Amino acid sequence: MIEALKQKLNDEADKLRYELNVTLPAEIRRAVEMGDLRENSEYKAALERQKFVQARLGQLGERLARLTSIDVTQIATDAVGLGSKVVVLDADTKVKETYHFVFGDALELEDHHVTMASPIGRAMLGKKQGEVVLLRLPARTRKLTIVELVTIHQASEADLEEDLD
């Protein structure tokens, strides 16, 4: 999972580097050739895009550095941890919910993705299949039973690719 995420981030960084070093300079050159830069919207748009791309490259670099420092062998093989897929049963509503535990710095969380630092992540961390989790919320306490657990070590490549997209 971590290697696939690193590859995805590296691919995005490569595209952004190409845009920063090839595409945007060409756009800026074209805009400069048009004349008066004070009222040149193409020039201003290219400069703003250049700033955005530089900032995003910085974020990607930081995220890749953090990913590199993760040791997968330290993640539990039989308990909820980073990369786990957990199905829980709510004791009150009898509704099953599925959660995917993702990196804390994930920029865009999808439905049912939770970070390890979130309240539900902290409550479930280290729990095993069959255990009851008490999730304390401001309005009430939820009682959840872990009915299915797939750790990062057990997940298939297809599962991991699905989690990354």
Mind explaining what this structure looks like?
With 165 residues, the chain is of the alpha+beta class. It has 2 domains: 2-70, Transcription elongation factor, GreA/GreB, N-terminal domain (Helix Hairpins); 73-164, Transcription elongation factor, GreA/GreB, C-terminal domain (Chitinase A, domain 3, Roll), CATH 3.10.50. It has 4 helices and 5 strands. Strands 3-2-1-5-4 form a 5-stranded mixed sheet. Strand 4 (132-136) and strand 5 (141-150) form a beta hairpin. Helix 1 runs antiparallel to helix 2.
What does the average pLDDT come to?
84
Point out poorly predicted stretches: 160-165
* CATH architecture term of the largest domain: Roll
How does the major sheet shape up? 5 strands, mixed
- Compute the gyration radius: what is it? 22 Å
CATH class of the largest domain: Alpha Beta
What characteristic shape results from the CA principal axes?
A: elongated
Helix content: 40-55%
CATH topology of the largest domain: Chitinase A, domain 3
Number of helices: 4
Structural class: alpha+beta
* Strand order across the largest sheet: 3-2-1-5-4
Kindly estimate the percentage of residues that lie in beta strands according to DSSP: 15-25%
